[in-house]
Amino acid sequence: PGSTLYMGVLDVAATMDEVIALFRTDSTADAKAFARRFNHGTVDAVDLYTVARPSGREKVSVVWHAMATKALLKPRDGCFLECNRDVTVDGQRAWVRSYTSIDLACCPPMLESFVRMMSYGTGRLFVESKTRPGYITVSFVTHVDFCVGPKEWLMDAMGCRSFVSETVVAWRTRDLLLVDRFLREDRLSRSRFLTVQELVPQSRRQKCHTCAKPFGPLRSKANCFKCGQVLCRACTSTWHIVDHDGLRTKWRVCAPCTVRSPNSTARQCLSSTKGRVLGTVGQCLNKRGRTDESSMSSDQSDSYVVDFIMDLDPPSRRWDQGQVVLFDPAELIELD
What we know:
Layout: E1 3-13, H1 16-22, H2 28-38, E2 42-52, E3 59-67, E4 76-89, E5 92-101, E6 115-116, E7 118-119, E8 122-128, E9 135-145, H3 153-157, H4 160-174, H5 177-189, E10 221-223, E11 230-232, E12 236-242, E13 248-254, H6 255-258, H7 266-271, E14 274-280, H8 281-287, E15 304-309, E16 322-326
Parallel strand pairs: 4-6
Antiparallel strand pairs: 1-9, 2-3, 3-4, 4-5, 5-8, 7-9, 8-9, 10-11, 12-13, 14-15, 15-16
């Protein structure tokens, strides 16, 4: 009674090694950094004991987390057994990160500051997709009881505690979308950004490199600091990147560049999607009866259109399928 069970599922473009690197908490410093980044409500985290020596992919330890809550509830804390390990699910390679509450005499409830919560099984399961190579299926399950604090009996009697608890858990379940965003940001941080001098001059482009829509008063230009191309602002997003000095910076990058590995080219990125080459932009428009090649602008004359199925934008705007324009003929490849 009083516990709430929620589950969320999301597909992300990533490798298992990228996922494990994102969730690495081998030390207290790593745990604090992870808590600050991933859990908006987490106010502190400590790695108390190591039960099994970490091997990079597998770890068993005892941790303590403290989290803020919304509305009138007192902050919560918990002592958990954390387990990370490789598993196999339906013949597919998988990795699980799970928590469950435990009682330790050395980590008693701090009633003056927190209410001790109970987790009956919370964690994330990452499974390599069978149907989408290069994708990971992320499942997040949380089953917790926020319990009743000494001064929360009135809220509990009025039924408010249950409502607020479910709201907090649902809010944390929606944070599953952050997995995709953080994977992309980590991927971007592992390769250099272009300088302003290396960007394609905006004056040389009249249409967006991705959606091919013309620029105008309502569609302004922006450069991607990875590929350098000129795009409309709807086809780019601002990403928060931590540099080598630990400073948090903002960079505008187009969505296709966020799913490329640091050493990949556009050719490798597109070859990991399901698609087919349709031809040059002019040929595609001819087929649709829209124009002829002689009327094409100079920045489209050597461009090709590829029909693809791929997650392009951040989680708030997901494209399941569409077309991408390649301005470098060398990037033209045959796709399955």
